[in-house]
Amino acid sequence: MDVRVMHKGCSSPDPCYPSIRRPIKAVLIVSAVYLTIPLLFLLAPSIISSSASRTEDTSLWIGERKKVIEVSVSDGKHLLVMPAEHLEDIAVDNNRNTVWVGTRREIIRYTLQGEEVFRYPLNIKDDSDNYSWESDDSDADEVDSERVVHISLSPAEDSLWIGAKDEVIKLSSDGQKLFDINLSPKVLIGEDIGHIQDVSVDVSDNSCWVGLKNKAIKYSSDGTPILTFNLEDGNKIQALSADPLSNSLWLGTKKGIIKINKNGLEEIRISAIEDVQDLKIDFTDASLWLITKKQVFRYSNSGDRLLYLKPCPEGG
User: Fold this and answer.
1) What residues does each domain of the chain span?
2) Which of 109, 125, 240, 272 could disulfide-link 117, Cβ–Cβ 3.0 to 4.6 Å?
3) Which residue would you say has higher pLDDT here, 265 or 69?
């Protein structure tokens, strides 16, 4: 597949995208249903998922600061807008007509038509009072606040795994907490684990990987820990993506990407990429899409680079 993204006015012959003055705060959610759309959507400071809710034409669900927007892929029109203060993550379940929205304060379940089903409050205490998405000025200085809410669907069970700072919660489709796992440093005495960096469900067996600062823990569907991968000192996990085709896991870190197999053994390490912000598996061919603060890559399941998008020159 030849994917070329050209910004208006960009004269470069190579695939590129407009440079972004502030760090990308994005969640890259790539699925087979919209891999052929321009990747420019994935580079905005937004949270993106996909749907085919209204017609055969695919739509995107884009989270931007204070709202969730359904956008038509064919013409870019806004089909639906829903308010969502302190938005941090989105997950779409087309089979059940559901949009899950993770904010810093709560989990909200909507129908694809925008009707609210329920809200589940999250008891998260901020480390500081500096967290703010209030400014609408794209050139304004922003406090670089760490995301503390991450969600991942378990479609077969119609449940949601939530990483909420120091706690993992599994939520049922009707908003009932099935269980929680406390990963606070106060519980894991002597370990500098940091906060939860990401969660990723392996849909083949409904297990879930939870990424901490320096380790990834795999939990069974009932919350039993079954496998742990430890990262070396001086590095940090920043994103996870489980591959259900091989039961493997890709880790995005400060110092590159790592693939571990179903037994937790490292198979691939690519150190040429730094500061990975997010990554997702394309289930059609097990390829990996990822973003850094300035770049977009696609890699094969065996670690070969398939695509690289670079920023357009300033003023180009």
Assistant:
1) 27-125+145-311
2) 109
3) 265
